[in-house]
Amino acid sequence: MKIRILGSGAGGGYPQWNCNHPNSRRARDGDPSAKPRTQSSIALSADGVDWVLFNASPDLRQQIGENPFLHPGEGLRHSPIKAVVLTNADVDHIAGLLNLRESQPLRLYATERVLSVLAANSVFNVLNPAFVTRESMRLDEPLSLATPDGSPSGVVVVPFAVPGKVALWLEDESRGPDFGSVEEDTIALEVRDAGGATRLFYVPACARMTDALATRLAGAEVVLFDGTLWTDDEMIRSGVGVKSGRRMGHMSISGHDGTMAAFAPLGVRRKVFIHINTTNPVLLDDSEERRAVAEQGWEVAYDGMVLDA
Ligand code: MLT
Ligand code: MN
Q1: Which of 23, 138, 208, 283 is most buried as measured by Cβ atoms within 10 A of its Cβ?
Q2: Number of domains in the chain
Q3: What residue's CA is closest to ligand 1, atom 4?
Q4: pLDDT digits (tens, 9 = 90+) for 117-133
């Protein structure tokens, strides 16, 4: 399975447009240890010809430009992108759909919940319904992703719910502390090849480790996991925001209840942080925090990273 990181940053990317945090300044200044990152998305292919995207970031146009395997290859209108799978309705995961207009055949997969969000926003009809089919994914049921002509892509996903919350722009404070979130608001994907072998887990947002999630991930070959923040109060302490990681639906990397501690007993062979916020010190190649995650066997995803598995 070919697996390529198109974007490794969290919502807003790195450096975020309005962020003057030292991390962001280093990236903007061209510091080679502070590489910019576009917003999170990955591309997968069983045959190196047809590609499936997991999430469509607002930076998709740039990501296609930077990755020749996604360039049109035949005739006057063509794309190797045959399908897009959405894991939530966050702006950083759906806004890129608008780049995939207009009359290009495509299959779009998401939970009923996320499809209902798209249906309620008529701007997404720029993906011409005569060419773009929208298909719902059921939790915990293996699904063979198809190309627009109906042939199998060779990529099979098993969508499953993880702790999280509804997209920021859909939060409804009148509906209690979880803002009206439902199970299908935040999912992760187990990726299998056509033979049924598990190749990857993609978990770009997760609010906490549960026993069920730990059981699922134990012994996995490759896990891409939510690396939004180093500490829960990072945005508050650095003065750039008022929200904690918990409030945003993201567990943090460090600490006794953090991601590194949660993964320590799981025996995952390759552990990679993705969806990394502009304030997170692990973005910096020369930081103490980067050294600390590397010591625990973690990699930090970067745009263009090849993760073939
Ligand atoms: C998140 O992952 O928490 C969201 O992408 C935040 C946002 O939409 O800005
Ligand atoms: Mn996000």
Answers
A1: 283
A2: 1
A3: 11
A4: 999 999 999 999 999 99
